[in-house]
Design brief:
This protein is an alpha+beta fold. The chain has twelve helices and four strands; from the N terminus they run ααβααβαβαβαααααα. Strands 2-3-1-4 form a four-stranded antiparallel β-sheet.
Length: about 300
Amino acid sequence: MRAQFVLSEIGVGLRRNLTMTFAVIVSVALSLALFGGSLLMSDQVNTMKGYWYDKVNVSIYLCNKSDAESDPNCAKGAVTTEQKKQIESDLEKMSVVDTVAHETADQAYKHYKEQFGDSPLASSLTPDQMQESFRVKLTEPEKYQVIATAFDGRDGVQSVQDQKSYLDNLFELLNGMNWAARAVMAMMLVVALMLIVNTVRVSAFSRRRETGIMRLVGASGFYIQAPFIMEAAVAGLIGGGVACAFLLIARYFIIDHGLALSEKLNLINFIGWDAVLTKLPLILATSLLMPALAAFFALRKYLKV
């Protein structure tokens, strides 16, 4: 009987404040969708880091004849065969080096034509203008500085470049976008909490006569508060369900179908469905507990029991 009464009161309360209940559902759904999206963005960035950092190389560019005339680092002339052999030998002796690949000027020219053959500059380049290089894969990409210190400024070396630095700029941008999403999420959560508190306050005020009678007949504080708390919890849970649906639909249409980024951007290792599904219980639990706790503390002030 008591459970039936509480459930009936929940239905009455939701219908009485239908507009505010709808606003609570929408605000909770948006804030938790952003919350889940920020968590998935973090997973995506970490997945991309693990995928790309494992593939980055350190490139040691060697001096050619053109560099000898224009680049101060190549003032002693183009790299010699002995210098190339010495550089390769020294690289193979280093413990931080995993593999070493030598790219000739002809190979560099061929790769450039494959990637930038349509550019106006490509037609004016010749193979002898391209730089030879050593492509070095490290056992730990973070130890690039070891290679730079050992070979930067050496005779025959024009420059030492770490591809990881380019990826770092991309990941900093993605992380910045992620923090911006979290800031918006925090604001939406504050709005949602304020709406929940106001909804509970209005509901408690509209039913002050019923709660007064319940107090006079000896009803416990929890028994009086339970319908209000459950109303907020149900509204929040509906919003959490909407947020979960939004994340599933977004994952389906953005990555797998619709935009189909997984097919168009083959170079990006996208997060899988398991990453999305593991976030849903957290979102649902938050959508249930957050409104319930907000309602509980609001009732302590606006409903004297």
